[in-house]
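Researcher: Next sequence.
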Amino acid sequence: MISVVVISILITSGNAVRMSKDGLYTLGFGALKDIHQSLYNSLTAVDGNIRKNLDGDLLLLEQKISSQGALFLDDFKMQKTTMVNQVSKQAETREIPKMQAGILYLNDDTEIVDEIEKITGATATVFQLVDNKLLRIATNVRKTNGERATGTYIPSSSPVNQAIMNGETFRGKAFVVNDWYLTAYKPLRSKEGNIIGAIYVGKLMISEQVRKLVSETTIGPGYFFVYTDEGSMLIHPTLTPSDNLFEIVPAFKEPDGLVEYPWEGGDKVTYKKRLDSWGVTLAVGLNREDIVAGLDVKMLKNNMLVGLLVVAVGVLVTIFLVRSINKPLQELAEKAIKVGEGDYTIKFSSEVNDAIGKLTNSLGVMVTKGKEMLEDIIRSSESLSAASTELATISDQMVSNAESTTGIADDASRNAQEVSDNMGSVSAAMEESTVNLDMIASASEEMGTTIKEIAENSARARQTTEQAVTSANKSHESIMGLGEAAKAIGSITETITEISEQTNLLALNATIEAARAGEAGKGFAVVANEIKDLAQGTAEATGKIKEAIDGIQSKTSITVTEIEEISGIITSVDEIVSGIVTAVEEQSITTNEIVNNVNQASQGIGEINENVANSNQMTAEMSDGVGQVKERSLEVKESSQHVRTSADELSTLAERLTQLVSKFKI
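Model: Next structure:
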C-alpha cells in the first residue's frame, strides 16, 4: 500500500515537474520575445531619433556651406589627388579642380565638418563629383588607422551615388569607408544648378550607445547579439565580425522566430528578428537550463519532501487502523468459536456502522435465527418423542384387543360347533352366542375408537415431522450463511496479510536506504524497524484471526453435517409416519368389516331365535362369520405389531434427535 503511495507520489511529482518545466519553457519563450521586443522597440526608437537628427544636421551643414557663398569648381586651381575606392580599395591618381564656396576652398578644409561634429556629434563629409564618383574632399570620417578618409570615394554602382546623380536626397543605411552608418546625403549644385558634389552627415549604426544598450540588456545569464544578413557578427560577447554565424549555427538561416540549437554542451533557445531599417538581425539567446533556473529540481525536492510526509502520516494511520481493527476482530473470532461449539447464548451487536460493525450485526442476526430454529427443532423433537410414546401405547392396546378378539372368535367357533353337534343345547348356546356377540361388538367399537385415535395421533405426528423438516432446512440455510460470512472474514484477513507483507517489504527497503544514507539515515532506520515490527505484529495477529476463522469454518461444516443428519432422520420419521397412517387406514377398513360381520352375526342370532328351524343354516353362517372375525382379528394383531415396530423406530429417532439438539446451548 505504501509502495503504491510512493510510486503515485513519484509519478505525480514527475508529471508536475514536467508540466512545470513545460510551463516555465513557455513563460521563458514568452519572456524572450517580450524582452526582445522591448530592445527592438528601443533600437527602432534610436533609429527614428537618429534619422530625425540627421535631417537637422544635414540642414545645418548645408547652411554652413551656403553661408560662404555660391558653389563652383575652379578649373584654374587644379589639385593632384589619389582616389581610393572605399569598397575595393583600388586607387588611382587624378588632377581635379578645387571646389569653392564663395572665396573658401572646401578641399581639405576640416573646419566646417569638425564644427558639425562638435555641435551634433555626427560625422560630416563634403563630396566632389569626379567622373561619376563621389570623392571625399573634406571629412571627419576616420579610417582604421585614425587618419581622415579624404581621397576615398563612393563608386558609381552605390545606391547613394545613384540617388545623388538623380538629384535625390538619400536617407538610410550606408557603408562609409569601413563601417555601416545611418546617413543622409544631399546633392550640391553649382550656381548654374548642375550637380557638382554632395554633402553627408551620419552616425555609426552600431554606435557605442547602441553597443552598450545591446550588451548591457540581459535576461538572466542570457544575452543579446546582432549580426548582418551575411552572418557577420556585429555585437556578441565572444564572437567577432570575422566569425560567420551561419557557418557556426546553420539554423540561423531560418526565418525570424525561435531557434533551438546545441551550444557549448547545452541546448540553447534564441529569438531573432530582423531590423529592416538597419538590415541587421537582433537576437537574444538563453540556455534551456537557465530558463528553468533549477526550479524543476526545487519542485522535485519539495514534492519528495511532501511525499515523505504523506507516507509517514499514512504509516501512522495504517498502524492506528490495524490496531483498531485487530481488537474487535479477535473478540468477534472468540465469540464465533463459541457459537461454532454450540453456544447460542452469545450476543453479537455493534453500534459502529463500518465493515466490522456490519459483520458483527450480521452474525448477531444469524445466531438469533439459528437459536430460533434450534428451539423449533427441540420442541418438534419433544413432540415427536411424546407422539412416539403415545403411538407405542396405542399399538400395545391394539395388540391386546386383537388377542382378545381372537380368543372370543375361538370361543364362538367352538360354540357354533357345539350347536351343530348338539341341537339340544341350542338355547343355551344361542344365549352364550348372544353374549359373545355383544362382547365382540363392544370390542369392535373399542377397537374402532382406538384406531381413530391412532389415525389422529399419526396425522399430528406427520404434521410435526413436516414442520421439523422445514425447520431443519432453515437451520441448514442459516448455517450455510454463517459459512459464507466466515469466508468473507477470511478474505479480509488475506487482504490484511497482503498489507502487512507489503509494509514489511517497504520497511526492509527503507532500512536498506537508511543504511546507504549513513549517519543521516539512522533516524529513518529506527522508524523503518518500528514499521517492520508493526508489520510482523500485524501478520501474527492476522494469522491468529485466520486460525479463528478456520475454526469457525470447521465448526460450521460440522454443524452443517449434523443438521443434514437431522434432516435425514426427520425425513425418515416422516416416511415411517406416512407408513403408519397408511396402516391405520387399512386397520380402520378391517375394523369396519369386523363391525359389519358382527352385525350380520347379531342378525343371524335374531333369526335363530325367530326360527329354530333354520338353526343349522344360521349356525353354519355364524361359524363362518366367527371364522372371518378371527381372520380380521389376526390381521388387526399383525397390523398392530407393525404399528408397534414403527412406534419403536420413531421413538429411537426422537431420542437421537434429542441427543443431537442437546449439544446446542440456547
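Model: The radius of gyration is 66 Å. The first strand starts at residue 71 and ends at 85.
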